[in-house]
Amino acid sequence: MRVVTLKDIPALPVEGAAEQTEGWTGPVARSRQTIIPPGASANYNCSVVHFSQGCNTGWHTHDCDQIVVVTSGSGYVANAQEQREITVGDVVQIKAGERHWHGAKAETTMGHITITMVGSQAAWG
Questions:
Q1: 76, 56 in Cβ contact below 8 A?
Q2: CA gap 21, 53 in Å, rounded
Q3: What is the spatial distance between Cα 87 and Cα 39, in angstroms, rounded to a whole number?
Q4: Are 110 and 74 in contact (CB under 8 A)?
Q5: Model confidence over 68-90: pLDDT tens digits?
Q6: CB 3.0–4.6 Å: which of 9, 85, 91, 104 could bond 33 by disulfide?
């Protein structure tokens, strides 16, 4: 068993894939707190991702399902058919291969826990 406290996990910048949410014109950035370090689980990747105000991932897909649990702020998750507002306590299941994006609204930051399978890949754009 392993227990971690989020305030003790450093938040490191996420390279690339930071785009502006509609209505925001300032700089954008993401950071990540890795909850399950590489090699610590044979099954899952798990991190907290923090989005600056008006920041989103841009369009992408995963080759496994992705679970997103909103922990702070509010934002959006979108696919080709719809865009939904998400806020603290919302849990989103994004199916493998579903083209989507998620991130903070223009007027707020957002944080979410993300869970994917070890060895899974994301395709951007």
A1: yes
A2: 9
A3: 31
A4: yes
A5: 999 999 999 999 999 999 999 99
A6: 9
